[in-house]
Amino acid sequence: MSQLTRFRDWIYHAPSLFEEREPFICFKDVDKPSYPIDDYQGNPRLGFIYQHLCTELITQSRQYDVVLEEVQINDQHGKTLGAIDLILHNKMTGLDEHWEVAIKFYLLHGGTWFGPNAHDQLDKKLERMLNHQLKMSQTPQFRHLHSALSPITERLLLQGRLYTNPFNNELTPTTCLGFNLNQSQICGHWCYQHQFDLIKETLFEIEKVDWAAGGTLVKRPLTQPTARFTHAQSQSGQFWFIVENDWPNNQ
What we know:
alpha/beta; nine-stranded mixed beta sheet; two-stranded antiparallel sheet; DUF1853
């Protein structure tokens, strides 16, 4: 099975980072894909591949039509206000939906979920997606251009994985901004480079396209990592981030 097909299938089956209540969603009510994906010519960054595969799932489903994709919203002076990932028409309900989609990986430190690049934080990302990105379809600029759309329902597809450090004694939060975290997604581990020798399993570094679904682990075992951060997986399937000893303060 190709990397893209594994990734696509992971997206289909994976739950949200948050317990499912509006606006959080997953793909459980969308048709299950049956065809392989072997080719992608777009931007190689993980977020772009993820959105492409989400759109593929939606396009092939019986439930949805893609009405608009990657819509930039500008004010009357041409200044960019924001962008919309997807506007979909739900053929089952007859209503239109605004979807924002993102895949994220966060590491718990000091009560805050940080991305491997610590400038990214779960609470800040969630606040922006809820109160800025999802509101772009309600702006006068968008409604003026697309007045034929029905009242739009907001949907947030936020998938990924949350990581805790098993060598630190830290209480794991159960909520973020008042929303319950999905406990099944708090399943990754992370540690500092100086804690690497405490890991009892051999690790194998994985490519970014495999961060979600995991790799085939055919590469050489990971020795003492020196990169700013390294994402790896053990033979048993456990995911690990190894970060520099002064993370997150070195960002």
